[in-house]
Amino acid sequence: MALILGIESTCDETAAAVVRDGTHVLSNVIATQFPLHEKFRGVVPEIASRAHIENLLPVLKESLSQAGCTFADVDAISITHRPGLIGSLLIGLTAAKTLAWTLNKPLIAVDHVHAHLYSVMLDSTSKPPQFPAVGLVISGGHTSLYSLQSFSNIILIGSTIDDAIGEAYDKVAAILNLPYPGGPPIDSRAAKGSPTVQLPRTLLEKNSLDFSFSGLKTAVLYHVKGTPQRIRHDLPPLPKPPPPELTPQHLADICASFQNTCIEIVLEKLRRAVRHTSAQSILIGGGVSANRGLRAALKQLHLPVLFPPLPYCTDNAAMSAGLAHLFYERQQFSPLSLDALTHSQFRDPA
Ligand code: KG4
Ligand code: ZN
Fold first, then answer.
1. Centre of ligand 1 from the C-alpha of residue 73, in Å
2. Could you please report the per-residue DSSP string of 48-90?
3. Which residue, 43, 75, 87, 100, shows the most beta carbons closer than 10 Å to its own?
4. How does strand 281-285 pair with strand 13-20?
């Protein structure tokens, strides 16, 4: 039996978790910073780092207490050391190194995005998925496709060329005056609407595995606020027509149209990725994998599609402590000179 204490601070969630043998989550504590960033409608890196400093110790204590163990009982410390905001990463990494050193426990470095893919295994009693698999991480910071031969052999095969899908949800929510983060309010309104608004379904080149969401977001903006008029400096400005009032039904229809377009894009990219890799299963992770519309729609793919349980969709430390178990078994530990990295992995040029 191995107990791993995981620490996560890559972006705006301060999290700690204790996971037994890679899948049994004994505690999963998350201090969310949404209220601090809400008014900026996005994460402010400096505010995030300061909040991590304040939250980390209480979160660590709470995670041990909920798991019913002490620092001494833990077999290793895992840390998501990439990718993320550098200030945020450094807070968690420094804490993890300090614990590993003072407690004389191994330190295990985990990639945050790989951990999102592993989150389908948490609290699961079923066997690991069939490999090769296609992995899709959809969150506020990432929209990337992966080819997995195993949970430790993961290759990036496609990613967004502009906005991440969760970022598009958050920006569209801002346009529609819905709360931040935008995913949950759009998801619930979409369920009450019809996809009657024509929006661009950007798929890029024929076999491209990359994504683009900025045009879709702009199309929603123009639909709601009107298309901008061409500015002619030699003429007096035209009077700006007032934006049309959004009725609750029109709002729901815009949400349904936006969500439907996102889902169609994701479905097509997954089909392409499965053809490209001959995958036997599909793993989805990241905050947007909580989306109810998406979960229902992906059932039409003729392959097993695995989603994380809802508490493990958004950022958490259980996913890192779970994946770290694999490296623990192989005794693949990290030195105390481990660096924080803002990037994950670059695409293989081949
Ligand atoms: O994985 P996550 O916690 O953080 C990043 O690594 O980015 O994902 C947060 C993102 C936000 O953009 C949020 O709007 C989105 O996940 N999200 C959703 C839903 N719940 C959260 N998007 C669509 N539908 C949801 N139900
Ligand atoms: Zn994440």
1. 33
2. HHHHHHHHHHHHHHHHHHHHT--GGG-SEEEEEEESS-HHHHH
3. 100
4. unpaired
Ligand 1 cavity residues, CB under 6 Å: 11, 139-141, 166, 169-170, 181-184, 187, 286-288, 290-291, 314-315
Mean pLDDT by 10 residues, the chain (350 residues): 96 95 97 86 88 96 98 98 95 98 98 97 89 97 96 96 96 94 96 97 95 97 83 71 80 98 98 96 97 95 95 97 98 96 70
Whole-model pTM?
0.92
CA of 290 to the centre of ligand 1 (A): 8
Burial-class residue 205 by CB neighbours within 10 Å (0-12, 13-18, 19+).
Answer: exposed
Distance 233 CA to ligand 2 centre (A): 45
